[in-house]
Give the backbone structure.
Amino acid sequence: MWIDTHCHLDAHEFGAQSLDVAARAAAAGVSVIMAMAVERGNFGAVAALAARAPNVTYALGIHPICVPQAQDEDLDVLRAAVETALDDPNFVGIGEIGLDYFIPLLCEPAMREKQERFFRAQLRIARDFDLPVMTHVRRSQDQVLKHLRQIRPPGGIAHAFNGSFQQAQAFIGLGLHLGFGGAMTFTRALQIRRLATELPLSSIVLETDSPDIAPSWIHPGRNTPDQLPRIGTALAELRGIGEAELREAVHRNSLAAIPRLAAYLAS
């Protein structure tokens, strides 16, 4: 039983195939796909997919890449949507949220300030409703950590982690798990592979970030959640353990990172 802790199942790359993609993942042994919202306009889309697919859950949030177009009132809409979603067993947390200091537009001073303001507001929503966060951390590890220390949501996942060991330990110390996926499967990704090998196994969860971050065997093609078991096998090989042991560990870690998943799987 595998859990894909980060996916964009409603992305335009999937077109009308999202439910078929979810079904193929289920056939491959992926029992849960966590679909991330990225803006106000797709809150309903991820919830609708989760309502129609038996192995899909969802999170609600405003992605840093979508912050330039976002309005302050979107944060009020998010808070209201989260409060309503608490009664939905398919709803699992706040995401995708965070900071991105890779894209030039987002590095401009005014946009950095807006990103941080939106991130802090969403961290408060997570804290207020006792929900985990799925964080986007691209060239922004220390800044994300700063805000996490100040607002302290109840855990979550640092998605597509690619920081230092010291930064990894800081995220773990704040109660977050670290997401690893397709990037780890490239032999040239030395730092990510070292992190995935040497960090405590108890701190790691798996993800695809579909349709992005395709693993080496399908790069540069479209990524899909049914690739997760093979990504898991790659991690087991890196760590020198059996696939079954790895699968059980990351499943347990995913439930620890996202507590609402346990009730979802029991339903």
In short: The chain has one domain: 2-266. The chain has eleven helices and eight strands. The mean pLDDT is 97.
